[in-house]
Amino acid sequence: MNLEPIDPETALDLYLAGKETEAATATINSHRSRLSFFVEWCDKRDIETLNELTGRRLHEYRLWRRNVGELAPASEKTQMDTLRVFVRWLESIDGVEQDLHVKVRSPNITADQNTREVMLDADDAESMLEYLERYEYASRRHVTVSLLWHTMMRIGAAHALDVEDYDPEGQCLEIRHRPDTGTPIKNQWKGQRTIALSGEVCLVLDDWLRDRRPDVTDDHGRRPLLATSHGRLSKSTLRKYWYQSTRPCVYGDGCPHDRDPDECEATDHGTAGKCPSSVSPHAFRRGSITRHLNSDVPETAVGDRANVSQDVLEQHYDQRSEREKMEQRRQYLDNI
To answer: Does one domain contain both 35 and 126?
Structure first.
């Protein structure tokens, strides 16, 4: 096979240009960010044409990327899975040897790491929300996913919401513990709080209530905010929305695991959780909390909004690296 020489920067530009018609802007930016490290590494190694790539060099890059970024296994997996997709694209333009992508290795994520480290990446979340806004606007799934990403609330809290808990003029939601009518929430009375909403989220909620929400009550005569034609949306359906919506193939990102959508088991009804890239509600919530922290929202404000103590927030939800925390503190020190 005759390979056609192509330098790393040109290859990346062509790859991203090709994705402009099939992926959301946030997805393209996410791939650009991840693959920019690979271009940097090629420059440091004087790799002028990607024809020179081998399995050994790809392994060397993996070790370099892990060390320079102090990456957790879950983050390393995301980086390498994106590189695999890029290398597979390079094969399609005769830029590297065929089947080189199978030599791009990712770490195996254990159940413990899944529980404590995996989260929905903010860029992926924005791609997901862009897709839902474009193709499923004000649908039950769009309302649910958008609301929970922006508020960081738990499944139980979302399940407990009534229409009357939403104040469109005040742009806020009341979360209430109502065990006597079937909707207890975590931390019970201490979990009750009022959550501010953005204008964007309120617009989606307003359109849902005006045009899409079924006019139903639950078994206790209450009007659930998240409803089906049969009544209050079940917690199992809420969980299903998370797994469905966080699959990359759903929001136009392709499959980072080189699976054929026509043959993938995760595309069957009720099996979205079998996709390696789909995330659980806990990982979804962890991603939202970390996103707020990375946006310089004070930890106390995040904790109050998400109903999480400071100790639990730091131990189980805050996925910022020590360097990221240091850089955020620096902006306050500069003003002293």
So the answer is: no
